[in-house]
Amino acid sequence: MSQGSFKDYQLSEAIVRSLDSLGYQHPTDVQNEVIPIALGKRDLVVKSRTGSGKTAAFGIPICELVEWEENKPQALILTPTRELAVQVKEDITNIGRLKRIKATAVYGKEPFARQQAELKQKSHVVVGTPGRVLDHIERGTLDLQRLTSLVIDEADEMLNMGFIKQVEAIIRELPKDRVTMLFSATFPEGVENLCHRHMKNPIDIEIGIEENATMAVQTEHVLFIVKQEDKFNLLTDVTVVENPDSCIIPDFDGYVLFKLT
Ligand code: AMP
């Protein structure tokens, strides 16, 4: 994490205040690199992992560049999973709260009509999985003619899950005059091809693993000494108190016993 400040960038008061209320005091390394370039509307290819603060790295400039008066979506963020789509939508909503930015998430396994109704309202930013986004485009329920920014998040996961063809079909429907940002932890050939085919002289940014290590230091470790027979009750108490959205519970040998999501 750098010791810079979000006030160092050309950000409006509403965005800086939202970041402050989220407790984001200093930009992370990836934010430091990405924000000024994205505000300058250049294409970007970013090698970084979850935990580096990458969502806010693209979320902050997107919220800054959104024109509130425009009712049609100005930014589209593609994610490989609906969990990530929901998370990114929440992050964008939080960052854009004081600017009253409206983000909508569209993903499979949720009624189409509900999303259709939401997309009819003002929606500055749309976050979604490729299949459902394409579905909305093809059925005429997602108008992307006013789009100015595209983010492809976790591109290597998109590739692993077989979504690249759908991503390319979506890109073909977008205005050519736009900024494209691609984030990926690894760069297999399929992801490289995506960059070459659909981006304009992108700037490459690579964030070292030290960044992730810095974020990991913020993880709190707690040790409970407990009798074997009390283990399950303790586990129940801890999960009730901590109330995590998801967690992994390893057994004695370090193998994963449960994954609660
Ligand atoms: P991400 O890599 O986008 O999944 O972000 C990892 C976590 O870091 C999330 O919980 C964010 O809320 C948090 N985060 C992002 N940027 C900052 C920042 N500048 N300061 C503190 N926490 C941050």
TrEMBL record:
Keywords: ATP-binding, Helicase, Hydrolase, Nucleotide-binding. A motif (Q motif) lies at residues 4-32. GO terms for cellular component: cytosol; ribosome. GO terms for molecular function: ATP binding; hydrolase activity; RNA helicase activity; RNA strand annealing activity. CDD domains: DEADc. Residues 4-32 form the DEAD-box RNA helicase Q domain. SUPFAM superfamilies: P-loop containing nucleoside triphosphate hydrolases (SSF52540). One of its GO terms (biological process) is response to cold. This is DEAD/DEAH box helicase. Residues 35-205 form the Helicase ATP-binding domain. Gene3D superfamilies: P-loop containing nucleotide triphosphate hydrolases (3.40.50.300). It comes from the Bacteria. PANTHER family: ATP-DEPENDENT RNA HELICASE DBPA (PTHR47963:SF2), DEAD-BOX ATP-DEPENDENT RNA HELICASE 47, MITOCHONDRIAL (PTHR47963).
